[in-house]
Known about the structure:
The chain is an all-alpha fold. It is 79% helix and 0% strand. It is built from 15 helices and no strands. It starts with a helix and ends in a 13-residue tail after the last helix.
Amino acid sequence: xxxxxxxxxxxxxxxxxxxxxxxxxxxxxxxxxxxxxxxxxxxxxxxxxxxxxxxxxxxxxxxxxxxxxxxxxxxxxxxxxxxxxxxxxxxxxxxxxxxxxxxxxxxxxxxxxxxxxxxxxxxxxxxxxxxxxxxxxxxxxxxxxxxxxxxxxxxxxxxxxxxxxxxxxxxxxxxxxxxxxxxxxxxxxxxxxxxxxxxxxxxxxxxxxxxxxxxxxxxxxxxxxxxxxxxxxxxxxxxxxxxxxxxxxxxxxxxxxxxxxxxxxxxxxxxxxxxxxxxxxxxxxxxxxxxxxxxxxxxxxxxxxxxxxxxxxxxxxxxxxxxxxxxxxxxxxxxxxxxxxxxxxxxxxxxxxxxxxxxxxxxxxxxxxxxxxxxxxxxxxxx
Length: 383
């Protein structure tokens, strides 16, 4: 029952977010924003989450996960509703600040609920299903958003997103209000969150998670601009981004089997390498068919990274600090989401959109080897 509740909420929430994220740069560009300003707009989504992610995790550990999800969904819905009424760039900035801050409370709490409900043996399976549902929403959201933007307006797309948010607000009242007590002694004493980085596997998982998430955000932020420059319509842009999300579904469905055949470390290395190479190739074609193919290839690569990093971090967490560790993971992700769009906005303004894809692809390829490790068995000792 807990798994079903979490899946319904995360699907609804991610659909409403993914419905607007690909439209955001097009809406901002239509209002007169430059490439650099769009980079700042994309980055502002991550700024306040970066500051409050760890605190959000601590709140989930102390008061339970129900209230953070309920209030997070209410504010997220209000945030996406704003651009429907106010057509200005500053409103887009305020909207993204509200939605980004709400996002951390929702996602950390949902992941914490799921981790607490699962056993160590089926946690990969639970997080795999969770990530698979997220991937499905990453297909449905951009697809709906692309058609809405093409046949109605950018602002009406945000209105539809806010309506979808009503569903998870209602469902969130069924989340169990459980506070996990400190069971046994932890190898990490209470104190500053930074001490958690003494766990080697946490450090590796943090980097891998940041790589996967930033590359997805960079693609969603800058691919619509590249595709628009190639005279590709909004609905086709929505299809290409949606197919990237759809490609994550089968990979995550067969994640447990892939882990048994390939192994965790090798699977993570291969998946990030595939995503990086696809990123490098995409700007060298304007064919919709080839763009769909490489977007799907990138989605398949990125599809493994997120659930693997979530499971690794949860398993490596001290029992009483799971929410805090998930908050640390999200904070690290937000650092990459904050700095990467600004960095690539500067690169794109100076050297063109082609450079954004080339540099980002090289980051992914290099990061695949940095995060490669053979220390998987050491994770178990921290439980």
